[in-house]
Amino acid sequence: MPKFNINMQWLVPLATAVWAVWTWAADHQRERRAERARISALYVNPFLSACEDLQSRIYSILELGGLRALRKRYPDGSYAEETLYLIVRYFGWMVAAERHGPYTQDPVVMRLDASVRRAFAGSSKAQHVGPFNFFKPEQKALGKLIMTTLEGQHGVELDTISYYEFKERLAAPPLSDSESVKETIEALRRSEDASDLGGRDRLIVVQNYLVDLLNYMEKKEGYTLFPGERLKCEPARGLKSPATTKPLPAMSA
Fold this sequence. Notes:
Shape: elongated
Strand order of the largest sheet: 1-2
Number of domains: 1
Number of strands: 2
Radius of gyration: 24 Å
Largest sheet: 2 strands, antiparallel
Distance between the termini: 87 Å
Mean pLDDT: 82
Number of helices: 8
């Protein structure tokens, strides 16, 4: 009987310590999940949305006759500014995702994101400088230009300005002075369909990498913005698929 009492004297403090450790671990895990959800709401979800909207617009234009449909929907030609807005919006959230959130050091995201940037900034014999060609400094400048801050559920949050505000800014410097901006809008308005769209090959590469980026991140996040299987734009004749082609060399401004 005395032996039993001695064991109980050790057992009660041990059980209390185990319970305290378990409770601390559970609370810590809940805090980590809450912080992860906060980061996703602030940076991951908007970035994925920007990627999806841009790749979807590119695919629609290049593979589904989207220019004709957009021209019918927007006879004033404002679809060109709207498409440019989707590109610049991606640049903005690209910069935010590089600096914040859980993918800042993810090698796959970093590689795919860099590939998209190089596709916009690069040029080769098959892809002359022109529409949809934004050098890396301009990509970051345009991205910063479109971002803003506001008070939200999680305190001060990043957001993008609206398309209508962006459209107003196009009429004034620095956007009105950008040759890449002007050439991109002109190409979208001037082209009858995707076959004669300047910079088409560059957009194919961008869309292909964006699909890979979305598929990877959505698998990590456990949800998808698109219920089916995303299709990739078919490479133009003489242009290999990005999966087997080295990224286009970046050119200096």
